[in-house]
Write a structure and sequence with these properties.
Largest sheet of chain B: 4 strands, mixed
CATH topology of the largest domain in chain B: Helix Hairpins
Structural class of chain A: mainly alpha
Mean pLDDT of chain B: 86
CATH superfamily of the largest domain in chain B: DnaJ domain
Low-confidence stretches of chain A: none
CATH architecture of the largest domain in chain B: Orthogonal Bundle
Number of strands of chain B: 11
Mean pLDDT of chain A: 89
Shape of chain B: elongated
Number of helices of chain A: 5
Strand order of the largest sheet of chain B: 6-7-11-10
Helix content of chain A: 55-70%
CATH class of chain A: Mainly Alpha
Strand content of chain B: 15-25%
Oligomer: heterodimer
CATH class of the largest domain in chain B: Mainly Alpha
Number of strands of chain A: 2
Number of domains of chain A: 1
Shape of chain A: globular
Radius of gyration of chain A: 17 Å
Order of helices and strands of chain B: HHHHHEHEEEEEEHEEEEH
Number of domains of chain B: 3
CATH topology of chain A: Multidrug-efflux Transporter Regulator, Chain: A, Domain 2
Chain lengths: ~110, ~300
């Protein structure tokens, strides 16, 4: 297999908005309409004024996929999943501070 | 391949009702969901129970699975009976939490001839996701990462089988944790000539023996001697790009942080490296060292507990 030997170069999704709404929806296995709902409840904050100009960052991809899993796996409403997401983010930030202070147990 | 005891994985009887199955799955999903769980092996356990639920919640798959009988034990070496699958037609699935790429060989062999829900109506193959662990050094110098992925492929008979493939991926300099590398066309193949999906790789760093990473910044605990802290000194400190000399300001204490600007992960702007000073006391294991400490005790009017009022 030729392509298995090739060195693949990808594009980096970082702090700059690069993903369009269609791309983000596809990456989540969801429909663009669902992304619009996530923006409406404030889970995602795209750069760009109009829907067609929206661009999403790595953090949006992570959040959207997480909300997708929470909704799918727990039958959670979007609002409930958004609350779970906030709480999980807070826990992660606290863990990161523990780790920085050398207090993590892992 | 290993037999999977789906009833045991969900901790239910073979006579369990659809409601029993759902509630058992829900309970375990809460416990092992990788987004919320801190259980060890949560992700692997979650995939297993997802797979078990995928089979048992579907009357067709469950009936077929039940046909294997109850003489098998989880983990036992298993070969499907020759007439396996005759008389069954599985409806495209996708009800459960697990993703098709996560299913075991056991599942793929038994239920492989199903396609993902809705896949045929899409204009692209599905996007796939994976996490990769790289060394912090790769973010400083760039590098390559070789990974093995298991992904479902459609074989000549139209069955979905899991295939392993290895990819060699370029890691760009300046990459940070939680960023993604998107590899166009490396996801699921497109169906009927449509564009293949993309592969998203989420970046994680292996824990580093010296540096802790936060975003683009690094921190390092730098041990110093008491006289270096109090009198000030120029000392050596490691950085990911080489040893540097650092000025310790006089009057420093443990916990003081020094910032080395631009010594974090490269980029625009580059991150910083924070040195957390940690005063280390020399042992008094010689006569002479003992004397020095005794002199200090005598000569220095020092009460470290002054602020406590004692």
């Amino acid at each position: 297999m030729d392509r298995e030997q090739d060195l693949l170069t990808g594009s980096v999704i970082g702090d700059e908005g690069v993903l369009s709404i269609e791309e983000l929806a596809r990456a989540c296995g969801a429909e663009p309409q669902w992304i619009i709902e996530l923006v409406a409840v404030g889970v995602l904050e795209p750069q760009g004024a109009e829907i067609s100009l929206w661009r999403f960052r790595a953090a949006d991809l992570t959040c959207a996929r997480r909300v997708f899993r929470l909704q799918r796996d727990f039958d959670a409403s979007l609002d409930a999943a958004a609350v779970m997401l906030d709480l999980l983010n807070q826990i992660e930030q606290l863990r990161a501070r523990l780790k920085l202070a050398g207090l993590d147990v892992e | 391949m290993e037999f999977k005891d789906y009833y045991k994985l969900l901790d239910i009887d073979r006579t369990a009702t659809a409601d029993d199955i759902k509630s058992a799955y829900r309970k375990l999903a809460r416990k092992y969901h990788p987004d919320v769980s801190k259980e060890p092996q949560a992700e692997a356990r979650f995939k297993e129970i997802g797979e078990a639920y995928e089979v048992l919640q579907d009357p067709e798959k469950r009936a077929a699975y039940d046909q294997l009988g109850d003489r098998w034990r989880g983990g036992q070496e298993f070969t499907p009976p020759p007439e396996w699958g005759a008389g069954f037609e599985f409806t495209p699935g996708g009800a459960s939490a697990a993703e098709a790429t996560d299913y075991s060989d056991f599942f793929s062999t038994l239920f492989g001839n199903f396609s993902r829900h809705g896949a045929s109506t899409r204009t692209h193959g599905e996007d796939h996701h994976a996490k990769i662990f790289i060394d912090l050094e790769d973010a400083f110098h760039g590098g390559t990462h070789t990974m093995t992925l298991r992904s479902p492929q459609v074989d000549a008979q139209g069955r979905v089988v899991l295939r392993e493939r290895s990819l060699n991926v370029q890691i760009p300099k300046g990459i940070r944790e939680s960023q993604h590398i998107r590899l166009a066309g490396q996801g699921a193949p497109g169906i009927k000539g449509t564009t293949p999906g993309d592969l998203y790789l989420e970046i994680r760093f292996h824990p580093h023996p010296l540096y802790r990473v936060q975003g683009r910044d690094l921190s390092l605990s730098l041990p110093i001697a008491p006289w270096e802290a109090i009198l000030g000194a120029t000392v050596k400190a490691p950085t990911p790009t080489g040893v540097v000399e650092v000025k310790i300001p006089p009057g420093s204490q443990s916990g003081r942080k020094l910032r080395l600007k631009g010594r974090g992960i490269p980029g625009e702007p580059a991150g910083d490296l924070y040195l957390g000073l940690e005063v280390v006391l020399p042992k008094a294991d010689t006569e002479q060292a003992q004397q020095i400490y005794q002199t200090m005790a005598r000569e220095l009017a020092f009460n470290p507990r002054e602020a406590l009022g004692v």
